[in-house]
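Next comes one such specimen:
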Amino acid sequence: MESLRITDGAPGLTALVGRATGLDASASARFQSLDADAPAVDVYVTTPFDCIASRRVSGEASRDGAVVAASDLLAALQAGRAEVGAARDPNWPGALPPREGFTVRDEVPVSVARQLADKGRELARQFSGPMGPPKSLLDSTVLTADAESASPVEIPMRMIFTCTSLGFIPGFAAPIDIPRHLRVSTAGRWVRLDAPFGSVYHSTGLGLFV
């Protein structure tokens, strides 16, 4: 039985895991313990958009790299239990992004991301089939960060969809002290979007989990 003992950040993690299981009832969650002055854990969840998402909490996991069913984690969080279910390590589809080495490349107003997501959802309603939005729409580049550099960063619609579907982008009524931008970072083949309420990762070139 795996455990996650949280001292701060439980409400935000509960919101993330709840949305992740709403998108995919079979979603998995994975814990990455951080070396810091105070114990902390990055909790990653899978999504149906070929992206993974994470949120950081203060506390300790039973084991670095442990994987559990997101539905089990959600039930434990809602009940206030530290025990979060049986280990399901084989269910995780690949490696996690690197712990370190990300370089900030650009910042994008959340209003731009919100507009892109609204447009994407409209297109998805028009062209989606039984399996959801078409791959061509998810793969389409909707934003180019650090555009003037020698290696601009292309942001696909799937990353924007993930941010909005998981509630990472604040609404208009959010408190004034909540940041109003997305930070774009890269590390090798990984692209990361840091939003006010969580981070989204996508791997370029080789596919997410290769």
Q: What stands out?
A: Confidence is low (pLDDT under 50) at residues 206-210. The radius of gyration is 17 Å.
